[in-house]
Amino acid sequence: MRSTVLRAKALRRLVGVATVGATLTALSGCTVPVDAVAGISVTADGHLLGVMLVCGHHIDGATLYVDSADPDHQVTAGEWTASHPLTEGVTTWPLDAPSAGWTTTIPLRPLAARTTYVFYGWTKDNSWSATSVDFTLPDRAALRPGTVRYDRVTYEDEKVVTVPLAEFTSKACDDD
Q1: CA distance 150 to 93
Q2: 31, 42, 136, 173: least buried by Cβ within 10 Å?
Q3: pLDDT attached to residue 176
Q4: CA-CA distance, 28 to 5, in Å (whole number)?
Q5: 140, 48 in Cβ contact below 8 A?
Q6: CA of 173: how far to CAs of 10, 51, 124, 154, 156, in Å?
Q7: Pick from 54, 139, 42, 56: which is nearest to 97 by CA?
Q8: Are 120 and 62 in contact (CB under 8 A)?
Q9: Can you give the C-alpha Rg of the chain in angstroms?
Q10: Burial label, 36 (beta-carbon count in 10 A; 0-12, 13-18, 19+)
Q11: What are the 10-residue block averages of pLDDT along the chain, 176 residues in total?
C-alpha cells in the first residue's frame, strides 16, 4: 500500500514538473526576436522624435504607450506605421506631426506629468521587434537636439542612456 501511495505522489510531482516545463517552453517560444533599437530625441524647436535603428532585418512601425504593470491598463498614446518597411540603418520622424513616409495610426496624445511612457518598434507579422525605451516628461525635457535616449542592453546590465545620434547609430546594434 505504501508503495502505491509513493508512486502516486511521484507521478503527481512528475506531471507537475512536466506541466511547468511545458508552460515555460511555450511562453519562451512566444517572444518576438529583437533586431532593432528604439529611441527618442527632440527637434531644435522641442518636438518629440521617434528614432529607430534597424540592425539587420526590418521594422514596420512604432507604438508609444503608457507603462503599467497591468497589461490590461496599458493605454496606447500614439502609433505610427512606415509606408515601407524600415531596413538596416537609422530613421527619425516627428511623433506629433505628419511626416513623409509615415502614417499616423493613432495620433500622439498629450503627454502627462508623473506618467512613464514606453516607445518600441514592431513588424506587422511579429517576425521582429525593437527594444523599447521608457521616459517621463522630465526625461524628455533633458533631451537636446542631436541626442538619443535609448535602453542600452549589454552582457553585464541594462540601462537607459542618452548619447549623441552618431554614437547611437554606430554602437546601439552592437549592444548585447
Answers
A1: 16
A2: 31
A3: 56
A4: 35
A5: yes
A6: 48, 13, 21, 11, 16
A7: 42
A8: yes
A9: 21
A10: buried
A11: 45 36 42 93 96 96 91 88 96 94 96 95 96 96 97 84 97 83
Q: Which three cell numbers stand for residue 150?
A: 535609448
Q: Which residues contact 141 (CB under 8 A, 6 or more apart)?
A: none
Amino acid at 8: A
- What are the C-alpha distances in Å from 163 to residues 91, 167, 170? 16, 6, 11
Q: What is the sign, positive or negative, of the torsion defined by CA atoms of 64, 67, 71, 75?
A: negative
Assess contact for 62 and 108: CB atoms under 8 A. Answer: no
Instruction: Please report the pLDDT score of residue 12 as a whole number.
Output: 42
Q: Which class for 137: exposed (0-12), middle (13-18), buried (19 or more C-beta within 10 A)? A: middle
DSSP 74: -
d(CA 19, CA 95): 44
Q: Cα separation of 123 and 116, whole Å?
A: 23
Cell 527594444 belongs to residue: 131
Give me 59's grid cell: 521594422
Amino acid at 55: C
Q: Write down the pTM of the prediction.
A: 0.80
Q: Note the residue count of the chain.
A: 176
- Bridge partners for 133 per DSSP: 119
